[in-house]
Amino acid sequence: MASASKPVYLSVQRPRVSSLYLLTRRISTNHGLLKARSLEPKHSNLAFSPLSENGKLLGIVHSGKPLTGMFGRNQQLRRRRLDESPVVAASAADADDVGINISDGTVKATKSFGERFPALVTGFFFFMWYFLNVIFNILNKKVYNYFPYPYFVSVVHLLVGVIYCLVCWAVGLPKRAPIDKEQLALLTPVAFCHALGHVMSNVSFAAVAVSFTHTIKALEPFFNAAASQFVLGHQIPLSLWLSLAPVVIGVSMASLTELSFNWTGFISAMISNIAFTYRSIYSKKAMTGMDSTNVYAYISIIALFVCIPPAIFIEGPQLMEYGFRNAIAKVGLFKFLSDLFWIGMFYHLYNQLATNTLERVAPLTHAVGNVLKRVFVIGFSIVVFGNKISTQTGIGTVIAIAGVAIYSLIKANIEEQKRKAAATVSS
């Protein structure tokens, strides 16, 4: 009988989930509205002291009757002191983390700026994607005008991006996703194709006008369709094949009269198209479960190691003999190094932002966005560099871009119909 009347004090380690547990006990739904409930039952025999020491809660009290001494003599005083306790404060902090504010005994859901204005945020993403892409292409071409070494420049692009990723991982933005041997084996072919396509694009940029390279790269949907049909065995509708005819015709017209045409630039751009096509194929097989930011970071690291050997063997002797010296003599050491750094940053940021942007939109918007991006780049490159193009080249470029737009819209509609059909079957 003595033990029943004498309070027993227990000291326990405060678990991390206690705040969430208490919060969930405090919240319930009543006719669609969230209201606060008491943290303890009407006749609870447990109460929590607001005092703590070294992470341990003191004063978990058990007695044979409801407590009245420790928290006061009435329910209001107990509730007031509970609200002031570290446990409830932690509950409120956890609520803030998940977008819930507790005030005056009520619970109100809060939305972030992106949730309240999704169209505005997506539009900003598109703008930054285009802006960074245009700046990259312009600055990249200017570097080639005094430093025509595309293999080395490709290494710089990836190196700056990899350093950026490592710094972000170090500060936990984003948190690095672990990778195992199986995932590495899946990502390596993707990274190899990414490296090849990237290097060949830069070889083309260094050899011909930026607008011409992007016109040739407008053929990428044709290579994608061909690979899907003959490599993956997917049946491509006739409407898609017909929509590709203007692309082929337009690129052919632009190539025949392009004033900056040379075979190095043309063939390199075509190889880039093929490499990026196979990158898409291998990407579908490399579903690692990671988020896109971590996947792109790992691909960049692997691609960097792929690009270093060709740069050393193909351009290394020329760079050591006169390449670096000539570039520094033309623009100075500071501008040379800053140009290399910024083209690497813009390259990584526009690719990362493109990935994040395309994750936010539907396939149809994705298709339109890709086409408009190419139009922006071609238009700005012509204005900035003053490239002279013939009338036939201009008409051919317009026809090619229009064909890409038609193809993209048809393909997006087909994908949307497949998605809706799958959703209907699953439901």
3D architecture notes:
α7 (150-171) packs across α13, α9 runs antiparallel to α15 and α15 (363-385) runs antiparallel to α16 (391-426). β6 and β7 (106-109) form a beta hairpin. The protein has 427 residues and is mainly alpha-helical. It has helices at residues 2-5, 18-26, 75-84, 86-97, 113-116, 118-146, 150-171, 181-207, 210-217, 220-230, 238-257, 263-285, 292-331, 333-359, 363-385, 391-426, and strands at 8-13, 27-30, 33-36, 52-53, 56-62, 100-103, 106-109. The longest helix has 40 residues, at 292-331. The strands form 3 sheets. It has a 3-stranded antiparallel β-sheet with strand order 1-5-4, with no helix packed on it. A two-stranded antiparallel sheet has the order 2-3. The chain contains 16 helices and 7 strands. Its main location: plastid. Keywords: Chloroplast, Membrane, Plastid, Transit peptide, Transmembrane, Transmembrane helix, Transport. It is a multi-pass membrane protein. It comes from Acacia crassicarpa.
